[in-house]
Design goal:
By secondary structure, this protein is of the alpha+beta class. It has 18 helices and 33 strands. The strands form 8 sheets. A 7-stranded mixed beta sheet has the order 3-2-1-4-5-6-7. Strands 19, 22, 27, 29, 32 and 33 form a 6-stranded antiparallel beta sheet that branches. A hairpin with a 2-residue loop joins strand 30 (548-551) and strand 31. The protein is elongated.
């Protein structure tokens, strides 16, 4: 939070605009002092109304201008003021303050500098019949309105306008432009690590925060540029990311994908004294090792499927020959959401186990294999903000893992999602919180692995109650794309409150949000790159880019999952209709999608 002093001489309308925006949390600042040089200025009353301490000093009461400013400087130093904001202050600032606050004094001037400097700039411009008038915000230096320009906004003058009408238009611009400019200067800078649809949604959520001035995404993707500036640094380049954060004064880094978290990016940032949202490596192991997670669930009686763990293929094969089917095989490590096989027969299970453990289909992730019983029921995703033992749940969502309609085909990273999931009763959500999410957060504290960040619970409501399918150490994809659209609250403030041990405030929209993934033909086995995509003409949050490339203003496929197209409505049916209406507008020879996202919610229960 920036500590500022506002200098004013007259009515104080710009002061009041700044004060009101601070009170609304649009500006992350506090007015420590209102400095007024006119004892009868109307701004004094406005200062009282906003509870701002006011210093009224007339230069006539001092032997020199330097003495006058030294008296002001003493109070500024006592109040630990960091910036001086001139808001209708009718005096030239002398070297006393210029030296003490070099490049930290800002003025708003009612003309498009360098034209019409000094007093009565509006009258000067009007008398000169200027075709354009406007407002300039600039740094203050020793010259008369000669400091570096920070922002300008102008308008074409209607020849029929009076000077009073021009002045009214200028004041209208001033009150918005000053706040917007200060927000950009002082607003929080956020870095989102990652490049998919989840990260696009996260960057969008941060860009909506009145407390955020700038969002970066590393490495990001072309579709994110409507909400963030992309930075060519890979998610696993910890040195490059740390350097960027330090050089650019980033206030918060948010990690989207699991891989850098499992590899310890949070540990590295914390060691450098940098604020990061995401668990340390010893907590991210909940996603990094399925074997570890199954063991800790067993130890702390967190309900899950029965399982066995193997590091030797022959022993795994022998075990599989004596099991009932279907059965679930999971690669222990990270496999981009594809390391889970539901085998319907022993033959299929043996083939999948060999591919993982012998053929290295998922690299080192498949060296250890978890085999667990197949559970039947209704799946749902429960995500929560977690800080040590404190767990703050988000609205549940349901995604669609299989590649094709009717839940056929291979498992994918997710082909669509929607929220809320009204056919999952609140009693099941409560059970999940009390028996799964809270116990896991508490277990991690007991294990010396305190968790902070997003905890993802992949859950199933069975005939015997809620069972845990998996835990992830980050936002789910594509659940994030619908959950963040439904979230009502300042996302930046929520994240910082969680990190700093405060209870976050948020709620959820009553509408349903549903999204459809457009994927490359052949996904998840293969992906098609470089094929033109036409008619992507809608802005986020309707469409989030998951894997696109841009050339000459056109988008091309650049990954397995390419676009997330969403719709909202009063019901699942309405949201689905709106989403598919947008899907049908998009044309590409290389894309396919499921046509039944949300079908479970439309069944009779």
């Amino acid at each position: 939070m920036k500590k500022i002093a506002v200098f004013a001489s007259g009515t104080g309308t710009n002061f009041e605009a700044i004060a009101e925006n601070i009170e609304k949390d649009v500006l992350d600042a506090s007015i420590e002092l209102l400095v007024v040089d006119q004892k009868r200025a109307k701004v004094i009353e406005k200062g009282k109304r906003h509870g701002v301490e006011t210093l009224v000093l007339s230069p006539r009461d001092f032997d020199s201008k330097s003495d006058y400013e030294r008296a002001i400087l003493k109070r500024l130093e006592e109040k630990k003021v960091e910036w001086i904001i001139l808001a209708g202050y009718m005096r030239i600032v002398s070297p006393v303050l210029l030296e003490a606050y070099e490049n930290r004094i800002i003025n708003i001037h009612p003309s498009l500098l360098p034209d019409f400097r000094g007093l009565d700039a509006i009258g000067q411009a009007y008398a000169a019949h200027a075709p354009r008038m406007g407002v300039t915000i600039h740094y203050v230096d020793a010259g008369l309105d000669t400091g570096a320009i920070i922002a300008q906004q102008g308008f074409d003058v209607d020849p029929e306008w009076t000077e009073a009408e021009c002045e009214a238009k200028i004041h209208e611009i001033e009150h918005v432009l000053y706040t917007d400019t200060l927000k950009k200067l002082w607003g929080a800078k956020v870095l989102v690590i990652g490049s998919g649809g989840r990260e696009h949604a996260i960057a969008w959520a941060f860009s909506e925060s009145p407390m955020v001035g700038k969002v970066y995404a590393a490495p990001g993707n072309p579709g994110m540029r409507d909400v963030a500036e992309t930075v060519a640094i890979k998610a696993d380049d910890f040195d490059g990311l740390v350097t960027f954060v330090k050089e650019n004064g980033i206030d918060l880094t948010f990690v989207g994908p699991e891989d850098p978290l499992v590899k310890g990016i949070a540990d590295r940032f914390e060691a450098e004294g940098l604020k990061i949202f995401g668990p340390r490596a010893n907590a991210a192991i909940l996603e990094g090792s399925k074997a570890f997670t199954k063991e800790i669930m067993k130890k702390y009686s967190i309900p899950t499927a029965k399982y066995e763990t193997f590091t030797d293929y022959e022993r795994a094969a022998e075990y599989l020959e004596h099991q009932e089917y279907p059965i679930v095989l999971k690669a222990d490590g990270l496999a981009a959401g594809k390391g889970v096989i539901i085998a319907k027969s022993c033959e299929q299970a043996l083939s999948a186990a060999r591919e993982m453990m012998v053929d290295g289909k998922f690299g080192g992730a498949g060296n250890t294999l978890v085999i667990e019983e197949f559970l039947e029921g209704e799946e749902f995703s429960l995500l929560a903000f977690v800080k040590d033992e404190a767990v703050y749940p988000l609205q549940i969502a349901q995604d669609h893992k299989r590649a094709y309609d009717n839940d056929e085909g291979e498992n994918t990273g997710g082909m669509g999602a929607y929220t809320p999931v009204t056919h999952i009763p609140q009693s099941a959500i409560d059970e999940a919180m009390e028996k799964v999410m809270k116990p896991m957060a508490e277990a991690m504290v007991k294990e010396g692995r305190n968790y902070q960040g997003i905890l993802y619970g992949g859950l199933m409501l069975t005939e015997k109650g809620v069972r845990t399918i998996e835990f992830n150490c980050r936002f789910g994809d594509p659940e994030t794309e619908v959950i963040l659209q439904a979230l009502r609250g300042d996302f930046y403030r929520i994240c910082t409150d969680v990190l700093e041990g405060r209870v976050p405030e948020y709620s959820f929209d009553e509408d349903t949000y549903l999204g459809v993934v457009l994927a490359s033909i052949g996904y998840p086995a293969t992906s098609t790159k470089g094929v033109l995509i036409e008619n992507i003409d809608e802005k986020a949050p309707v469409i989030f880019h998951m894997g696109t490339a841009e050339k000459d203003g056109k988008y091309y496929t650049a990954g397995g999952r390419v676009l997330f197209v969403s719709g909202k409505g009063r019901s699942v049916s309405q949201a689905r209709d709106n989403a598919y209406r947008s899907v049908e507008k998009i044309k590409s020879e290389a894309l396919f999608h499921r046509s039944d996202i949300g079908f479970r919610a439309l069944k009779e229960y």
